[in-house]
Design brief:
This protein is mainly alpha-helical. The protein has two domains: 2-103, Tyrosine recombinase, N-terminal domain (DNA polymerase, domain 1, Orthogonal Bundle), CATH 1.10.150.130; 119-295, Orthogonal Bundle (hpI Integrase, Chain A), CATH 1.10.443. Helix content is 60%, strand content 4%. It is built from 14 helices and three strands. A three-stranded antiparallel sheet has the order 1-2-3. The mean pLDDT is 87.
Length: 301
């Protein structure tokens, strides 16, 4: 009982610190107090009666238990924030010397980790369009372009004919907020676009009247839904199951680039991200790959 009271005493000191020195609102402090009480109840159930006995796997077990209780990711994330603040306080006071949350990602980040398509499945997907037909040639060019550049659907449908420079192997993209960027094109994407421009686009009705690169069979600029249908139908034929969207090709582009050694800042520029923190999401995906490789090949993993 004395040890349980010790936990409560430390939390009370922390709450007083928030109240007196941080000037947080009463509602925020009450919220932190409730969250920390839930955490200490969990620790006591595991016979952990000192904060210095908490390890990273303890935090992970706590998150899993809260998820099983039906709590939302937002609620769990808020609790983890409270625990982080508690440990920072205890470290600053000299009460503790280590922080078990130092290597723990936010559960909100876990939820945001993008799903990616493996390289061999990407190859399967890109081989699906029937290039003996003009729309198949067009769809091949769309898929190759999506994966080669990581462009958003809204950017692909907006591409003008004069934004593509096949000789110098680049394309202009107009992203969010009408911000423009230059994105390099790979050999496969260039070949697919060349075939489209030579064998398919000239045979589309009224194509000579449009400045847009990709057109529907009636000669109108493609809509977002058209690209979605192309990607979903080809993915289904390629045996790629689960949720599939053009954005998944963007995720795959970024993850594969980083996994193969591309610089984070370069990938950020190609994706058109304003903040590098947005691009860093893909490094977490890569870490899962590294852990899997380590488990598979390290003799003492």
């Amino acid at each position: 009982m004395a040890e349980e009271n010790a936990l409560d005493d430390l939390i009370e000191s922390f709450i007083n610190y928030l109240l007196v020195e941080c000037g947080l609102s009463r509602n925020t402090i009450l919220s932190y107090s409730r969250d920390l009480q839930i955490f200490t109840t969990f620790l006591i159930s595991k016979n952990i009666l000192n904060f210095d006995r908490v390890r990273p796997d303890t935090i992970t077990s706590f998150i899993i238990s809260e998820k099983k209780r039906g709590l939302s990711i937002n609620s769990i994330t808020r609790t983890i924030v409270a625990i982080r603040m508690l440990y920072k306080f205890l470290l600053s006071e000299g009460t503790l010397k280590t922080n078990p949350l130092a290597l723990i990602d936010s559960p909100k980040l876990w939820q945001r980790l993008p799903e990616v398509i493996s390289v061999h499945k990407i190859d399967d997907l890109l081989s699906i369009p029937n290039t003996s037909m003009k729309l198949g040639i067009r769809n091949k060019a769309i898929l190759e372009l999506l994966y080669a550049t990581g462009a958003r659907v809204s950017e692909v449908i907006a591409i003008q004919m004069d934004w593509i420079n096949l000789e110098y192997r680049y394309m202009k993209c107009r992203g969010k907020g009408s911000k423009e960027r230059i994105v390099p094109l790979g050999t496969k994407a260039i070949e697919a676009i060349q075939n489209y421009l030579k064998f398919a686009r000239p045979n589309i009705k009224h194509s000579g009247d449009s400045t847009y690169l990709f057109l529907s069979k009636t000669g109108k600029p493609l809509r977002r839904e058209n690209i979605w249908v192309v990607v979903k139908n080809c993915a289904l034929k390629a045996g790629i199951h689960g949720k599939i969207s053009p954005h998944k090709l963007r995720h795959s582009f970024a993850t594969h680039m980083l996994k193969n050694g591309a610089d984070l800042r370069v990938v950020q520029e190609m994706l058109g991200h304003v903040n590098v923190s947005t691009t860093q999401i893909y490094t977490h995906v890569g870490k899962h790959h590294l852990k899997a490789i380590h488990r598979q090949y390290h003799p003492r993993a």
